[in-house]
Amino acid sequence: MSTAYKFRNPEGLYFISFATVHWIDVFTRPVYKDIFVENLRYCQTNKGLEIFSWCLMSNHAHLVARRAKDTPQLWETIRDLKGFTSKKIHETLHNCNTESRKKWMLRAFRYAGKKNSNNKHFQLWRQDNHPIELFTPKVVRQKIKYIHENPVKAGIVSSPEHYLYSSAIDYYTEQRGMLDVIVI
């Protein structure tokens, strides 16, 4: 098993990236984005997830985060975040009659689930998380800027703070975004 990307320091601050299987653009509709944000908020409130920066793109997410003291390990919280989001999106897709991509996405996620011994029926997220521990303030700032620039580089917005599903608004304006973010 690879040791390149692991949560080694339980108290560490991490840059974390995770993507959907086959890089499928799930998060193009607000209903799916809101499921992800709702679950992030739950993890903040109930699992001690401390978020310094975040961004949800159409097929992947980035976080700079750590766990609060005496709370579940960060890897456990990320696992639960991905697991619950996967179940809720599967349920939403299954019950939605207006999703034009429904059959295709359900088939793709079932196929991915059958190919993975950890899942049997449905897999939304890739197994990897790519956590990178951040040691210096300079690197933390670089990663936060990278996260906030993602929607700009993708051509979605012209300025980071205009992207709703990100913490950029917390950093570049006096307004508060969708989640409680520790601005540094």
TrEMBL record:
This is Transposase. InterPro entries: RAYT_transposase, Transposase_17, Transposase_17_sf. One of its GO terms (biological process) is DNA transposition. It comes from the Bacteria. The lineage of its organism: Bacteria, Pseudomonadati, Bacteroidota, Cytophagia, Cytophagales. Pfam families: Y1_Tnp (PF01797). It comes from Fulvitalea axinellae. SMART domains: Y1_Tnp (SM01321). One of its GO terms (molecular function) is sequence-specific DNA binding.
